[in-house]
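Q: What would this chain look like folded?
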Amino acid sequence: MATPLTGSQLLAALRAEGLVVHEVRDWRRHNRNTKGGWGPVHGVVVHHTATEGTDTSVDLCYDGRPDLPGPLCHGVIDKAGEVHLVGNGRANHAGLGDRDVLQAVIDEEELPKDRLADTDGNRNFYGFECINLGDGQDPWPDPQLLAVEKAAAAICRAHGWGERSVIGHKEWQPGKIDPRGFTMDQLRKRIQDRLSRPPEGPPPPAPPNGGDGNGSGTGAGTGTGTGTGAGTGTGNDGTGIPPAVPPMPQHPPYEPFPGGEFFRSGARGPVIAAMGERLIAEGCDHYRRGPGPDWNDAHRKSYASWQRKLGFHGKDADGIPGRLTWDRLHVPNTHSTPGNP
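A: My prediction, written as structure tokens:
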């Protein structure tokens, strides 16, 4: 039995275990505490989302569904092994489960078969949703499995629990199959090994404030460089013989950064549509009808998802492109001038 961790304590515990943690919207005050109790807490339940795509899955777990309001867990663990905190308090994740399973978790004993659905799990358990289709075919990347191990161990360490305080949803509620793709005994063994060692400490820092170089903070600048600039003279190649045929203009394979000031209301051009297609390809899609040539809020939200995917946060993930994130997006060259249709 334990008093639930505060939001700050949960965040600190996860980061102390060496995890990259993203704070989603108003997660610290996002809960279902008005609909039921929260605590004392006894363990951690691991789920799979049955969805794909980081942004879509995180938004679903934060917002919930028409028949099941969010948050649907406390943290979402993506394929890259990063944790997205979406709730702090009671969450709609575990539902009703077997009271004998709960008692075994409290006693840290071998779990009985879950046969009943008579006990409120949302009061008693933290929950982590792991992004996976749950079809037995969708892979579990090593970084994701490591993050599941670390996240569960972080909470166990904070409360002084052992690995038997971590269960799968399928071990709690009859009829559930998640998580599918690894066994909970395997996960508990990994957690046991981790708890026998000190925590790893925080991960390397994310890019510094303003790292996108879009005019806010100290981000990466454009640099002056030495360039290869065109020389002066008569226009020949230095041999004194004018070229017989003017050289064809060479287009770089990717669109050069048009400058953050370009992306404002009223901006238009094929470069914007090309940017949107690349964002969709990277899984950063907030478009309802597909990207068009006019700069709008869907473009901004999609680009903000790309910035967050690269590790930027706060004002550095405001959806206004900066040079660093633009160069990494690899927008195909449209051979056009920004602002022209």
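The first strand starts at residue 21 and ends at 23.
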